[in-house]
Amino acid sequence: MIDLSSDTATRPTPAMREAIAHAEVGDEQRGEDPTVNELQRRVAELLGQEAALFAVTGTMCNRLAVAAQTAPGDVVVIERDAHLMRYETGGPAVMSGVLLEQIPGDRGTFTPEQLAEVLAAGTVHIPPTTLVALEQTHNMAGGTIWPLERYRAVAELAHEHGAAVHVDGARLLNAVVASGIAAGVWGGMVDTVWIDFTKGLGAPIGAVIAGPAEVITRCRRFKHLFGGAMRQAGIAAAGCLYALDHHVERLADDHANAARLVEGMAAACIAVEAPETNMVYFEPPPGWSLGAFLAALEAEGVRMGPVGRRVRAVTHLDVSAAEIETAIEVVAALVAAGPPGADPRGAQVPR
Ligand SMILES: *Cc1c(COP(=O)(O)O)cnc(C)c1O
């Protein structure tokens, strides 16, 4: 199966498994796991921050950032289709009791003017805005990158207002590789920022959040509160360290593969905007229901994912340039053959 459904489909390589097998470990909960401590040091430095904390998932990093930088009843500003808004089971409301003020974005980003309209100082009856959350790259918008000047202007405005800035950087390193702008530049302008190791970086477990030492200490307390403290977590951190050393620059290959996929699909008459990083979203071809198209792809050995009403293809470590050519041929053959006639209602095919 050529699995383009998500960059979470990566599996640890033999060399990464080797690094995991030889990890030095200790009790993470007590701060005594040397591999976790090394990973935290490396990521803090990479992101231009003072301190960092290893977490089980990126979702946990978003929970920690909100909990550590808000109080119940505060307002968190978020782009409308952000992961933190759409795909985290209402975590900010459940775990931190905050309100989410949604800004409709342009390719996942928003302007300082849009932010200025919703920032509230807080009075005896108006809830204060204490956190502004950005997503880099933006998943639902198509792996899009915040333009640096807009990012800077939004962060500065939030800070002038006294609000903290958080970056969901699940794929920040894709933005770094594609833009050529260093991780420390993006990370150094904001208060908290995290990267995921289980997306394109190819590790099996882990994400790391970075920020000022005092904020990270608060995150550590919430991590324990939310049940996320671990023991010999160096087993997982070793995979992340391996990924930092070996799987960052190669993200450029994933971006080239996504660009090639779009080019190949254009030849098959599927028009898709050129991707900025590793994600390609498109409508099912004319006449095809989403379910029927995905099932037909899968029957031919290509898996893409449904996201809302669209098809999503994500390139990653486990999909080669040759496999992209195969995927293009499969898509072209399906478009040429047309949709199955026996599926007039566009029924979802179970999978
Ligand atoms: C995947 C993802 C997350 C959640 O990360 P997990 O490690 O899967 O919990 C958060 N934000 C974005 C933008 C993501 O793509």
Task: State the main characteristics.
351 residues, alpha/beta, 7-stranded mixed β-sheet, 3-stranded antiparallel β-sheet, 12 strands, globular, disordered C terminus, binds pyridoxal-5'-phosphate
Largest beta-sheet characterization: 7 strands, mixed
Kindly report the spatial arrangement of strands forming the biggest sheet.
2-8-7-6-5-3-4
Uncertain residue segments: 346-351
Structural class call reads: alpha/beta
Average residue pLDDT: 96
Percent strand: 15-25%
Q: Got a strand count?
A: 12
Taken from the alpha-carbon principal axes, the silhouette is: globular
SSE order: EHHEHEHHEHEHEHHEEHHHEHEEEH
What are the distinct ligands in this entry?
pyridoxal-5'-phosphate
Q: State the end-to-end distance.
A: 14 Å
Helix content: 40-55%
Q: What does this entry show, briefly?
A:
The chain is of the alpha/beta class and about 350 residues long. It has helices at about 15-20, 35-45, 60-70, 85, 90-95, 110-120, 150-160, 170-180, 185-190, 215-225, 235-245, 250-265, 290-300, 320-335, and strands at about 1-5, 50-55, 75-80, 100-105, 130-135, 165-170, 190-195, 205-210, 280, 300-305, 305, 310-315. The protein has 14 helices and 12 strands.
